[in-house]
Structure formats: C-alpha cells, structure tokens
Amino acid sequence: MKKSVVLIWLFFAVFSNCYSQSGWTKIYACDYLGVGIHFFNQNTGYLINERSVFKSTNSGTNWFSIITLSTNYNGSSGYYFDANNFILTGSDDIHVFGWIGVWKNGVRTDSYLNPILSNLGITSTHWINNDIGYAAGTDLGLSSYTGRAFRTTNGGANWTEISPSGSLYVNCIKFLNASTGYIINPYFRKTTNMGANWIAVNDTSGLDMHIVNSDTIYIAGYRGRVNISTNGGAAWTARNTGVNFDINRIDFLNSKTGWICGSNGIIMKTTNAGINWQTQLSAGSAFILRDIHVLNQNYLWVSGDSGTAKGIVFKTTTGGSSFVRNISEGIPSNFELSQNYPNPFNQTSIFRFQCSMKGLVNVSVYDITGREVQALVNETLTPGTYEVRFDGSGLNSGVYFVRMTAGELKETRRMVLLK
Questions:
Q1: Which of the ends of the chain has fewer CB neighbours closer than 10 A, N or C?
Q2: What's the total number of domains in the chain?
C-alpha cells in the first residue's frame, strides 16, 4: 500500500505542471499546422491550415473541409468579411511567388507577387473593406532576406509595393483605417498615407500587434514580451507576462481585457491592460499556438499544432476561466467521482468529485466512440470536494461518459444528453 501511495505521489510531482487551468477544451481538427482561426458567431467558424480551409457549424466541436489547396500552396494567414467573402495568403512553392487568394461570393481569384530574392511568402494581411487591403511577408534568399509589403485598392486585382526601406522581414501589418497603419519589420513603423511613406516611430519589435485605437496599441513577441503604447507608438511600456516563451498572437476585447497565445501551448489573460497576466493554459512544449480569435468575453478559439497531432483547436465558453469550484476543504478518505445531476439532462449538468491528496486531476467528457469532447478539469488540486459544470449545448443528443483520472486511479460515469 505504501508503495502505491509513493508511486502516485511521484506521478503528481512530475506532471503537476502539465496544465494550469481547465477552462479550455482541446479539439483535434485536421492534419498540418493550424495557422489561423476565425468565428463569425458562436457556432460558425473557419480554420486555416497549410493545405485547406475547414468549417465548423457547432462551435468548433466538429470540422469539415470546404477548400483544398493544391500541394504547391502553403497557406499562412487570412482575413474574413463573412463566410463567403474572405482572403487567404501564403506562397506558391512551384513558382516561388507570394500568393493572395481572394474569395468573393465563393469565387476565387489568385494574385501572385514576384520575389526579389528566391521565395516570397505572404504571412500577414489586413483589409479595410472589400476594395482596400494590405499584405506583407518576407522574401527569402539563400543567404539573405528582406521584408515586403503591398497595397490594393481594387479588391486584389492589382497590387502596389509599399515596402518600408531597410525591412529585414515583416511579421505583421495592420491598419487603423484606410490611410493609417502599422508594420513590424522587425521594428515598429507607422504610415499615414496608405504606405507611401513609413515613419520609424520606435525600435520596439515583436511578432503580432493589436490596435485598440489611434492611441492604444499592444505588441507581443519574443520571449514572452508584451508592450503597450498609449500615444500611438511613440513610447512603449513593457508588461511582464512572467513567461519566457514566444507570444505569437495577441487579441483584446477592449482596451484592458485581452489574451495572448504562443509556444509551449501557452494561453494567458489580462483584465488590467497587461499589468497582470493569468496563465489559463500551459499545454506543454510540443504545442505551438499560432492564432487566437476573441468573439466576446466568453467565446474564444485558439489554433495551433502539437507534433504529429497537428491541427489543434482550443475552445472556451467561459473566457478561459476554470469550471471547477471547491465546495469543501475537508480532506476526503479517497478519490471519488459522483454521478452527474440531473441525468438525463437537457443542456448543463453538475459533477462532484473528491481528492484525498494534492495532485494533477483530469475530468473529461467522451462520446460513445471514445473521442474526448470536453476537458472539464486538468489541473493540480489540493485535497477537498469539488463541483464542476458541464455544458453540452454544442453537442448532439446521446450517451456520453465522464472520466476522472488521478495518477493511476480512474473512475467513469455514464450520462445521457437529451435535447
């Protein structure tokens, strides 16, 4: 008996930092890298990977392919007006062109931008309306590279180069309006005349930025760096995230509440303009999260990849907050998962479980095929009795199973969702 307790304790000691919060559900969506994600409402959204566009009509629980690119295309970014009008960018490997695909009412038109060196990839795009758009990326040579930027005023039919002088590479381009925009190349630059001229405002660098208004701008990037400017980029204040991983994307709901995601499967949230950051998910070193979409304060999606299990989507319906609530700090005598109530249930149901020692606890819901449909808890818990809410609003009626795992201990309960 002592040997079992020691083994369980060692398991918790080694793996207790795998995930820090449990408000996010992991979904395997597709092969290849999940490079971009966008939702038009709580149910309908698009996921871009290197070869395809996938669509979900049930809030990201299931995905099906709607566009397949030929093998010479590499998709890398997108911009969306609605489900029938959107833009994809990337590269055409056979002809080494930068590629921009414009879909208008489901009809695709391709543009190809010539490289100066060897291979041009368009990795960032931002559009003001159906006519005015901007795109940028990096032109790679054998031993050198240069940043390139372009503008269209006729919906992608023609493109004019607006590259800032001295660009090493371009990580991001975004515009506040048709005339005023910003580029990271790799330093922060500003234009007020549609890219005809670029002003070297500050030497701040990064991988992504979010424009709140003409004054407030956020930049996120290497080694966990987040900076905020409240005067249009003239000066920047560093915000300490407390992590050392690259931040690939930053998105804000308003001037103070926002999320970041990046390497090591990290998702973090701030509610005070970046002064403090809460880690909501740290999925592990295999995960690289590349894009985040904030629909509202509750519904968010993050896309990325994880080694051989590529095309990962993380979803939350609680703003990333944990579902779990400690209802008693008394120390139970064992680990136990109680039956959910009510059961059968229409949309939501409650589980109670208890932990007799500190350690990593996972409570997840599976469908009848054994596929995980929602991770309710995946964090280190202290001894006590807990309550967790399951929301099945995005699932079909049927039989589901909830499983609690704590080290080598497992318990499963059967439940029925009726709509």
A1: N
A2: 2
